[in-house]
Amino acid sequence: MAAPSVPDIKEIQRYRQAALVGRLALYLIVAAMLFYAISPFYWMLNSSLQFEKDVVSVPPNWVPPALNIGNYEEIILRKPADTSVAFDKKMAGYSTFPTADVLPSMWNSFVVAFGVTIINVILGCLAAYGFARLYFKGKQSLFYVVLASRIVPEVSLIVPFYLMIRGLGLLDTYMGLIVAYIPISLPLAIFVLVAYFETVPQEIESAARVDGCNRFQTLWRVILPLSAPAIVTAAVFVFLTSWNEFLFPLVLTQTMNTRPITVTLLDFVSEFSVSYARMNAAGVACVIIPVALALMFQRYFVRGLTAGAVKG
Amino acid sequence: MANILSVEGAKPADATGLKGWFARRTQTEGGIAMFFVGPALLLMVLLNIYPILHSFYVSVHVYNLKRPHKNPYVGFENYIMFLESEDFYNAFMNTIVFVVVSVIAVALLGLIFSLALNELGSGVRRWVVPLILVPWAVPYVANGLIWEWIYHSDYGVLNGLLVSLGVIDKYQTWLSNPNRALYTLVNAFVWKEVPLATVLFLTALQAIPEDLYSAAKVDQAGASRRFWHITLPALKLAFLLVLVYSSIISIKTFDLVYILTEGGPGDATALVSWYTYVETFRNLQFGSGASISYVIAIATFILAIGYIKILYRPQES
């Protein structure tokens, strides 16, 4: 197998051909991957831009035969119905004509997710500094307890939470949802931040301490400015987790005052749904912000995760 | 405020009142640590540990919302009752199939995707990776909506595509077909979870020093031997993360079932989390619902420990 010292022309050509075939195969695989990841989104968008009669045609229309943005107008502008709904609408036999609760509930999702993000990033940074840089008794086991507590399925926490939130008078409030979402994403925020903080060289911190910085100043002036990728990762992660939450708001919200987009989406997915085109338009409304965030911050995200994945 | 978190040992500890307390607390590193770790820990205890314990309390009582003031203690009767029920057995078997197929598919596809991405030039990769990552970002509810529409038996694009490619000659049912429904769920799940696995594998792949491969080539190791002896061992930790994470997430799968099948047709897609939900919120048996989730949590925990024992050897850390 050893390469001859002076390769002849034919050998080089054969090698080049093999490399070319390899490249082509690689690009085919990558194209298939992209198709797999993106085509479902394309299909939702495509259906949301068609007239109802085109949406239900057989065979399907691969592109809209006539462009129709009316579905979006419909889900945004239609007057909301009375939505003082029980938490399980399907159970109550509740079915409505889909209404224009889309924008208000996107706003609800945003407010709650934003609130949780601020709180969890601040708490996460403080805790991660403690775990990464300070010694205290039982540190390791505490860290694992925090992480492991997320193994318990949400379904089992929902009853105690419902009773607790009701007891605090926070049912159907932003605060109630924020309180419920905090423990869902806090452990992972801490995990990502700890892994990254540990990669900041100890010498930089020692230098700051010698210059008279206390622990808090060290964190604020030295560690945090160096940890932007991890902070962005944690923030995006917390925001997405909160935006995507479904079971808790299903139980903890009752009216459009707080109902997030994930729950509102149910109105459109009913088996007796009036309009598939509008259902897809509502779906687009639900994913547009998470997708935009993922695309915008992806580069940070990969770097922020790297510390944790490579080092553990 | 300057002395609250000051350089330890720099402040006298004899001050009185609140100031003195802070000064004394910050004498040791452990004391300081509590100011950093404390708030998060306190919230996790209040908002996570306490509900978990409360739910254990609920699980050993009869907690029926139809009779809210009669909650007798029944010991482990709730546990025995559901462990003996056929519905639970069915849900349990469905969940095992769902978890095993999903986790294997996520790990395999993630590995293949990341190997392909790793071969790309970094210029192309920079454009491809964000697009691959997108399904990971969307809520499971929207994921369910997207796939429900794709699977639709009358107007779905899956049928349209397969017919126009000549794979099938007439439209099929997917979600309402008992033999296929569980795998349609698996597909929707895998579609969302593969991206994160891909990124985790990819970061591990890119951390492998190029010299290792060059050295192996000098030693005349073929491509497959390089893969088995260099690439795979380097991916061990990523495998651990992917397996543990996707197992935990797949065991908890609930939103997808809610949107796509509601456990149907019949009970073909009733997973344990769905079974718990039905028991809790449709039969309003809070006690028995809580007992089921306890068993799920413990089983998940044991599984996670098992992975760690197998894949994570101390000498590597």
Quaternary organisation of the protein chains: heterodimer
Average pLDDT reading of chain A: 82
Fourth-tier CATH superfamily name of the largest domain in chain A = MetI-like
Largest interface: pair, residues per side: A-B, 103 and 107 residues
Total individual domains of chain A: 2
Largest sheet of chain A: none
Biggest sheet architecture of chain B: none
Beta fraction of the residues of chain A?
A: under 5%
Element order, helices and strands of chain B? Answer: HHHHHHHHHHHHHH
Helices of chain B, by number, come to 14
Low-pLDDT residue intervals, each spanning 5 or more residues of chain A: 80-98
CATH topology-level name of the largest domain in chain A: MetI-like fold
**What's the shape of chain B?**
flat
Uncertain segments of chain B: 1-11
Number of helices of chain A: 14
How many angstroms separate the termini of chain A? Answer: 39 Å
What's the pLDDT, averaged over the residues of chain B? 83
CATH architecture of the largest domain in chain A: Orthogonal Bundle
CATH superfamily of the largest domain in chain B: MetI-like
By secondary-structure content and strand pairing, the structural class of chain B works out as mainly alpha
